[in-house]
Structure formats: structure tokens, C-alpha cells
Amino acid sequence: MIDRARIDLGNHIIGRLEKGGRVFEMLMDPERAWNAKKYIREEINRRLKEGKEQSRLTVEEVIEDPNIPLELIFESFIVFEDLRRGKKATDGDMEAIFDTTEGREIGAHILLEGNIQWTKAQREEEKEKKLKQIINIISKNAINPQNNKPHPPERIEKAIEEANVKVDLMRSAEEQVDDIVKLIRTILPIKMEQVEMAVKIPTSFTAKGYNIVAQFAQIKQEEWQSDGSWVAKISFPAGLQMEFLDKLQKLTHGRVQTKLL
Prior knowledge:
The protein is of the alpha+beta class. The chain folds into 3 domains: 2-116, 2-Layer Sandwich (Hypothetical 12.0 Kda Protein In Nam8-gar1 Intergenic Region, Chain: A); 120-192, SBDS protein C-terminal domain, subdomain 1 (Arc Repressor Mutant, subunit A, Orthogonal Bundle); 194-260, Alpha-Beta Plaits, CATH 3.30.70.240. Helix content is 44%, strand content 21%. It is built from 10 helices and 12 strands. Strands 10-11-9-12 form a 4-stranded antiparallel β-sheet, with helices on one face. Helix 6 (120-141) crosses helix 8 and helix 9 (206-216) packs antiparallel against helix 10 (241-252). The protein is globular.
């Protein structure tokens, strides 16, 4: 019988959603699915930071967003109950849970709510890459307060291992630095050198500009001006200053205003 035959996934992965006591699975391209999930996470974070009433993306937004190419992410829009055995989901189950049998809509639900079985190689590669970025940021910005000298990257890496730090694959390295420094502080005497800065972002670039600032810095004070521009007092690791300013300059075409405090 077809539901006893094991399907070879090849280079694909399974996206799985359990809902209402039923299981729905679809076949996905690992790289494109990975990029889509990161984009969705970043968009949710951006909305949260901007105080949007609706931070989560809707199914309709996922379907219509050109940054989420469903036709490339999903190998097909066939929905399974047990993909490895080739057992398709019934129309009745799909209607009962999603009010539709449309594979694109159910695929959007899986991207938003489901569990995606990333490949081991994919997880390890991303973890190693992100860990190197985190260690690099900390080594450039942290000192030993006992002698005011920097810690070698190797020492920071060892402290991270000893503290059993779990790297979040879906968050940027910059977003995780502060949390990781707090965790390794019990093992390693460490202090991050900080820069304080005033920044003003013109109206046309506030949404994306805010996202960049929130990614790099701690926002201490902020205010929306009558002309729609955004001003803030921020602090961030000193070693990120050039990269931070470069991103804001490129976004605003040189119209951002900054001042060291």
C-alpha cells in the first residue's frame, strides 16, 4: 500500500504542523525555507519594535509577499498526513482545520506556525557561523576589568562552551551578544566598552532605520518629531560603530544625523 512505502526526500526537508489533533506535512527546499523563516522572524521583530498592534504576519501577507516565494520554497503544494509514507491529508481534515484545501494557504500556515525539520548540516553550519560572529564582536568590544586588557577569542569561546550557551539560529549575532556576555560573566571577568550616541533618522527611512538601530544598540531615549523623523539616544558596543554608521548612511543616502555623546 502507498502509505507503507517510504518516500526518499532527496535534498528536501519536511515542514510539519500539528493542529486540532491532525498532522499536516509538506515538502520544502531547505535553503529557501530557511531564508523565509529568517525573513518572517525579522519582520515580526521589526513590528514589535515599532509597537505595531499586529506583529504577526497573516497567511494573506505571506502569500502576497515577494520575499517569500512559495512556489520555490515548496516542492509542490500537495499536503500530506504522513509525507514519508506518501499518505495525503484528506480534504475533510484540511477543511476542518484551515477552511480550505488550497496548498498555498496551508503552506503559509506551516511557515508561520509549523515545525521545520532543518538538515543537521544546515543547523551546524549556521551555528558555527553565528558563533564566530558573536565571538568576534565580543573580542573586539570586551575587556577584562581587572587589567583593562582584551580577552583573546579563544578564551571567550571556551567560556561560552563552559556556560553551555545555546546560540539562537534565527536571531542575529548582534542581538545575542548582550545576553551571552551576561551568561559568561560568571566564568570570565568581562566588561563591554560602550559608545553613547544621539541619532536622527529622516521620515522616509524611519521603519528600516529603527530596525537597524534596534539590531545594534540599546535605545535609552526616543522621540518622534513633528515632521515624522525619529530621534534617539542609544548605546552599543564600541567596535560596532563603523558597521552601524555605514548601514545607516547607505540606507538614508547620507541623510542620517549622529553625534557622539
